[in-house]
Design a protein that fits this description.
Elements: E1 3-7, H1 11-22, E2 26-30, H2 34-53, H3 59-67, E3 69-72, H4 75-78, E4 84-87, H5 93-106, E5 112-115, H6 122-127, E6 135-140, E7 149-154, H7 160-172, E8 176-181, H8 188-204, H9 210-221, H10 227-234, H11 236-250, H12 259-266
Parallel strand pairs: 1-2, 1-4, 2-3, 4-5, 5-6, 7-8
Antiparallel strand pairs: 6-7
Helix pairs in contact: 1-2, 8-10, 8-11
Bound molecules: acetoacetyl-coenzyme A (CAA).
Length: 281
């Protein structure tokens, strides 16, 4: 495996491109929006420089990494000689399915199609293609250059050979693969989101303030960020969306998003990205 296409130049897409290129893969970073590509390259440059300053990498590795990334606005031509495509676009099933349909037509028959989805069924995405055995979930964590986990999700029709290839690739980029079956929220968000929701419920009930709730989880449970700060970092709209997918997928009201979370999202207070969530930035 040499050539990897990453579709979507947002936070996750640029992080994935960064890590793949740093480990010597030839990366096509694809986005229909030219300014998103420009911004992504600036972010990658900034994060590589941060790693240079911390002596994690040297200047030559930084320059080689940047040279390994090629930006493109045209999906069909960019994926034509890819060994692996990782889709990291907006978390909307219909948009992802359209992309899977499109790349299925343009990518070589042996190319593996992966999605960085945090909640959408991999089996459903696989059904949009003519190669369900070669479709898999590669769920990276934010910030991608730092977080060790890649949650690997096997669709119902996924092949063991595809899983093995992706597990080996994950090791080759210095990350740890954890393989799970396709189910709502997989494992990461099935466990994380109810904790975040419970913290929001406690805040809503006035049991304590945001800072104290976060301090309890940081100091008492050794979490690097408290649940409310983490929710702001992930995006409150993203948390709300994943909780709704869990509620629908399991048909269980225990996952119903807390009213306070729904109110914040309705008010456009989505966390770090909008300047306010449970905290102000
Ligand atoms: N690129 C490269 N390096 C980065 C970076 C980036 N984007 N962001 C941070 N770093 C590096 C820093 O340079 C620093 O390096 P050293 O340890 O060598 O000094 C290190 O990471 C820690 O960063 P900071 O000192 O700036 O800040 P911090 O100690 O507060 O850590 C954090 C920041 C890594 C984000 C930490 O708070 C953390 O781990 N938070 C939890 C993150 C988490 O849970 N992510 C998963 C979210 S869920 C998800 O992504 C999936 C989903 O489906 C919702």
């Amino acid at each position: 495996m040499r050539s990897i296409s990453v579709i979507g130049a947002g936070t996750m897409g640029n992080g994935i491109a960064h890590v793949m290129a740093l480990h010597g893969y030839d990366v096509n970073l694809i986005d229909k929006n030219e300014s998103a590509l420009k911004k992504a390259m600036q972010t990658i440059e900034k994060n590589l420089e941060r790693q240079v300053q911390k002596n994690v990498i040297n200047n030559i590795q930084k320059e080689t990494t940047l040279a390994n990334i090629h930006c493109s606005q045209d999906i069909s031509s960019a994926v034509a000689s890819s060994d692996l495509i990782i889709e990291a676009v907006t978390e909307v099933a219909s948009v992802k399915k359209e992309i899977f349909k499109l790349v299925d037509q343009s990518a070589p028959p042996n190319c593996i199609l992966a999605s960085n989805t945090s909640s959408i069924s991999i089996s459903e995405l696989a059904n949009a293609t003519t190669r369900p055995g070669k479709v898999i979930g590669m769920h990276f964590m934010n910030p991608v250059p730092v977080m060790k986990l890649v949650e690997i999700i096997e669709g119902h029709a996924g092949s063991k050979e595809t899983t093995q290839t992706i597990v080996e690739l994950t090791h080759s980029i210095g990350k740890i693969p954890c393989v799970v079956k396709d189910a709502p929220g997989f494992i990461s968000n099935r466990v994380l989101m109810p904790m975040i929701n419970e913290a929001v419920l406690a805040l809503q009930e006035g049991i304590s303030d945001a800072k104290t709730i976060d301090e309890i989880m940081k100091l008492g449970m050794a979490h690097p960020m408290g649940p409310l700060q983490l929710a702001d970092y992930i995006g409150l709209d993203v948390c709300h969306n994943i909780l709704s997918i869990l509620e629908d997928g399991f048909d269980n009201a225990k996952y119903h998003p807390a009213d306070l979370l729904t109110e914040k999202v309705a008010a456009g207070k989505l966390g770090v990205k909008t300047g306010e969530g449970f905290y102000k930035y």
